[in-house]
Amino acid sequence: MRFFAASFDAAMRTQNTWWRYAIAHMTPRTHKLVLPHPRGIPIASSAPDSTASTTPTSTIAPMGPGTPTYEFDVKMDGVRVHWAYDAGTNRYLRFQDGKVHVTAGAVPITVTNVVVMTCQHIKSPAEPRSSVPVTVGSGRVVVYSGGKAHAGTWLRAVDTDPWTFVADDGTPIYLAPGTTFVELSRG
Questions:
Q1: Interatomic CA distance for residues 139 and 88, integer angstroms
Q2: Residue 9 clears pLDDT 60, i.e. is over it
């Protein structure tokens, strides 16, 4: 949990507080990210229900067949991002500009899930030379988990709401228990 919070804190220091909401709703015992939808559709959870539980669980809701994807690139401004899946550890390793991306402590960044959201970017109100992603509205999303890609749509009405991830067939997209890296790619 500390790595997850520290990574998002460093990466999103100038952003809205959406990530604090997500961290606050991730329970340490189950590693569930529970993001309730106003219509009762579970969004990103390790179980089919949308309520957080304090008891450990080993069940993961099926996400459908998905498309086997062991490596993929993410379009980002000014940096080449590549992810590689390791079936032995069931984790994704992040590469940046051709090198393994590491934390300040030289630990490689590896995660269980990678969420790639396509967003419009606008000029930053804090720094006009920078841009910030617009994470309200809707756009394409691809959730990579367990060596498979699950394509769909992300939705969010206001910046204080959680994201809703819905597969192209209309079913919810779930995250596997563990750490998740969210990439906000320019649309």
A1: 32
A2: no
